[in-house]
Design goal:
Blueprint lengths: L1 H6 L17 E3 L11 H4 L2 H14 L4 E4 L3 E2 L18 E2 L2 E4 L5 E3 L4 E9 L6 E10 L2 E10 L2 H4 L6 E2 L4 E4 L12 E7 L12 E2 L4 H7 L4 H4 L7
Parallel strand pairs: 1-2
Antiparallel strand pairs: 2-5, 3-4, 4-13, 5-12, 6-11, 7-8, 7-10, 8-9, 9-12
């Protein structure tokens, strides 16, 4: 699947509005190396939002971006990621931080596999999963932290055209209580999952999950512009 995605990268529509010649992308690091993001800040949604907005404004960036295969302590902010044996801390998608109501486009045609309102503090909030075919191979794309209105009238099995607006960045009260952003993730197999799939895994399960969730930039093609 990875080789197919690489080969056909030229066909993918941008997932968010972005002009590489005029828009700046800020590479955001949420590992322990980022000492400017404290537990006090990321545990409070308002403070966390202020932090993101300040970083974007200071760096004159349209979006902040990053996070694939990133080990993040910030998931300590929510019990959603707790586990008695080992907490989940490894991020499996790419986050695009920006303004609420930013439109989200389907990168390739497909159908609505499932959707849900994962309404827990720290969860996805409004979520859509699309199913696609590429050279007779099936894969999925997940869109988390959306606006609730984007799933109110949605139907499973609905056909989605390439480049169609499918969603918008949600506000904290509808996106799992996060600063506005999109969590975008590629998922090859969706074993008995509907409207949800882990976006963060245990470090001990890293290889298994990364094999099923290849780098989302294979579709986004944005990370090369991030500084």
């Amino acid at each position: 699947m990875i080789s197919l995605l690489k080969k056909d990268q030229h066909i993918f529509h941008p997932v968010v509005p972005f002009n590489a010649s005029t828009d700046k992308l800020l590479l955001m690091d949420f590992t322990e190396n980022n000492q400017s993001l404290t537990e006090e800040t990321f545990s409070d949604t308002n403070l966390f939002t202020q932090y993101i907005n300040h970083q974007l404004k200071t760096n004159n960036a349209l979006y902040g971006i990053g996070g694939y295969n990133e080990l993040r302590n910030l998931y300590a902010r929510s019990k959603v990621f707790d586990d008695a044996s080992e907490p989940r801390r490894l991020h499996l998608g790419i986050d695009i931080w920006g303004k609420p109501a930013t439109p989200v486009f389907a990168p390739i045609g497909g159908v609505v596999h499932s959707y849900a309102f994962n309404d827990h503090f720290g969860d996805y909030g409004a979520t859509i999963i699309l199913q696609h075919q590429l050279k007779a191979k099936t894969f999925h794309t997940l869109y988390g932290h959306l606006s609730f209105k984007d799933i109110e009238q949605l139907k499973e099995g609905k056909f989605i055209n390439e480049g169609e607006i499918i969603a918008h960045f949600g506000e904290p009260n509808e996106n799992g209580h996060w600063p506005p952003h999109l969590h975008f993730q590629i998922i090859i197999d969706m074993p008995n999952k509907s409207g949800d799939y882990p976006g963060v895994c245990k470090f001990s399960e890293r290889e298994k999950y990364l094999a099923n969730c290849p780098n989302a930039d294979l579709v986004l093609q944005m990370m090369k512009y991030a500084k």
